[in-house]
Sequence to fold (148 residues):
Amino acid sequence: METVGELVSVFALAVVDPLLAIPLGIAFDINPIAVGLIAAGAGALGVALFVVLGEAVRERVRLWRTARGRAPRDPGRRSARLRRHYDRYGVPGVGLMAPPLTTAPGGVLLGLALGAPRGRLLTWGVAGVVVWSAVGTALAAAGAELVR
Fold:
């Protein structure tokens, strides 16, 4: 039987990074289906929080910079490369590939910085979290069975 502390730990970690929370839940010997559902739900919540809070922070920084008379920064080489990838793959690419590469909230912040629409970013971010939570849960459960 899982303790409430274990479930809360998995949930809290999954808000920030569902793919790290899944092995933790499996190590706590929580049912893999429950771990996948917790990770997907908490990850979706994290994406939604970062969409809302990230947009507010972005707007405050923009207002702060304009109030100080500073122009928007020139993109460096790295930013230009990210922009090319974003232009090529769009919001679906950011949402679906962010969980394994940058974490889902990291992908949301990256998408917001690149000017992605919030609604589409939320939709594709949640889709990415659900897909990668299913993949991560299947792989972690299979790995745990091999070890046992």
